[in-house]
Amino acid sequence: MIAACLRNADAVGRFLSERGLGTPGRPVTVIASGERWPDGTLRPALEDLLGAGAVIAAMHQHGQTVLSPEAEAARACFGATADIAAAVTDSASGRELTGTGFAGDVAIAVETSSCRLVPVLTGRAFTAA
C-alpha cells in the first residue's frame, strides 16, 4: 500500500511504473478515498479524485498505457481541471477547512507534485521508499 496525494503524485506514478506495476499482469488499484459526512455517509472528495487522477496521469506519462475506463476517467478529470488549487479551495472540503482556520493546510495540499517521497506501508507504519 502506498499513500499518494496531489503533492507526491508524480513520484508515486514514477515509482510504480519503474517497477512494472500498473500493467495487465501486475495491476494497481488507485482509490480516491473520500471522507465521511457528519452522519457517517460517504462524502466524495474532489481533492482525492484529482489526486488519484494525478497518480494515474503520472503512471501514464512514465509508460503505463493500459488504463481501465475508471482510471482513464480519473486521469481525464485531473487533466481537464485547469486550476487545481482553485478547484480544491472552492470544493466542499476546501471551503470547510478554510472556514475553520485551515486555509494554509489547503494551500499546502494543492502543491501538485511538490514532494518526492513515496510512503509505503511496511508492517504497521509508512516508510519512505
Task: Write the SSE topology.
Elements: H1 9-18, E1 35-36, E2 42-43, H2 46-61, H3 69-80, H4 84-89, H5 92-99, H6 103-109, E3 119-122, E4 125-128
Antiparallel strand pairs: 1-2, 3-4
Helix pairs in contact: 1-2, 2-3, 5-6
Descriptive terms for the model:
6 helices, two-stranded antiparallel ribbon, mainly alpha, 9% strand, putative 2-phosphosulfolactate phosphatase, 4 strands
**Apparent shape:** globular
Order of helices and strands: HEEHHHHHEE
Number of helices: 6
Oligomer: single chain
**CATH T-level fold name:** putative 2-phosphosulfolactate phosphatase
Per CATH, the architecture is Alpha-Beta Complex
The secondary structure category is mainly alpha
CATH class: Alpha Beta
The overall average pLDDT, rounded, is 93
Radius of gyration: 15 Å
Distance between the termini: 11 Å
CATH homology-level superfamily? ComB-like
Any idea how many domains? 1
Uncertain segments of ≥5 residues (pLDDT<50)? none
Largest sheet: 2 strands, antiparallel
Strand order of the largest sheet: 1-2
Strand content: 5-15%
Instruction: Please report the total strand number as a whole number.
Output: 4
- Share of helix among residues? 40-55%
Structure notes:
There is one protein chain. The protein has 129 residues and is mainly α. The protein has one domain: putative 2-phosphosulfolactate phosphatase (Alpha-Beta Complex), CATH 3.90.1560.10. The protein has a two-stranded antiparallel ribbon. Strand 3 and strand 4 form a beta hairpin. Helix 1 crosses helix 2 and helix 5 packs across helix 6. It is globular, with a radius of gyration of 15 Å.
